[in-house]
Structures are given as structure tokens and as C-alpha cells.
Design brief:
Length: 108
């Protein structure tokens, strides 16, 4: 972050100019290995500061336009929605209905 801020105006200018052209290709993620409690490791990809800024700008523009289009029961990666809400909703419906429907969409 400190490196990015040293040339803040120039770095933001680069992002600003590349975004409308579609040429803002992110550099490879930095990979960090995180130990699992059950043993072994998992890889965690860390984006650059400029990539995080780009993601946030795009999110701030797309989310307000796209979020209202989702079904109210869509919880994945939605603002102000949580995994606990999904569990609570499922629990309420289990008490109300005596059947279950499972769908899995395969695009291949």
C-alpha cells in the first residue's frame, strides 16, 4: 500500500485510463500458503493494490444496478446477505413444507 501511495496520482491515472479500454489486465496473484487445522495447506491468492481498487470501482458501479435483478432467495455474494440467513430460511421452510427440491445447473 505504501508503494502504491508514493505515486498515488500516477497509479490511479493508470487504472482510470486502462479501465474503459479493457486493457487493465491484472498481474498474477501473490500466493501465500495457509496451514489447515486438519493438516496440510491451502493456497491463498493476494491481488495487488491496484487490482483491489479496480475491483472495488467495478463493484460500486455494477452492484447497485445488478442486485435488484436477483431473486430475493439468492444469497451468494450479495450485499447484506449471509450464510446464517440461508440456514434460517431453510429452517423455516423445513417447518412449512414436507418436500425438498435440489437443482444443479451444469453448463457443459
Amino acid at each position: 500500500m505504501a508503494d502504491f501511495e508514493r505515486n498515488l496520482t500516477g497509479n490511479l491515472f493508470k487504472i482510470w485510463n486502462r479501465m474503459p479500454l479493457g486493457s487493465n489486465l491484472p498481474p498474477p496473484l501473490r500466493t501465500v500458503r495457509i496451514p489447515k487445522t486438519s493438516g496440510g495447506e491451502r493456497k491463498l491468492g493476494i491481488p495487488t493494490v491496484s487490482d483491489r481498487i479496480t475491483h472495488r470501482v467495478v463493484q460500486s458501479r455494477l452492484e447497485p444496478a445488478g442486485d435488484p435483478l436477483f431473486h430475493p432467495d439468492s444469497y451468494g455474494y450479495r450485499p447484506r446477505k449471509s450464510a446464517l440467513e440461508v440456514v434460517g430460511q431453510a429452517q423455516q421452510r423445513c417447518w412449512r413444507y414436507d418436500w425438498v427440491m435440489y437443482l444443479d445447473i451444469n453448463a457443459s
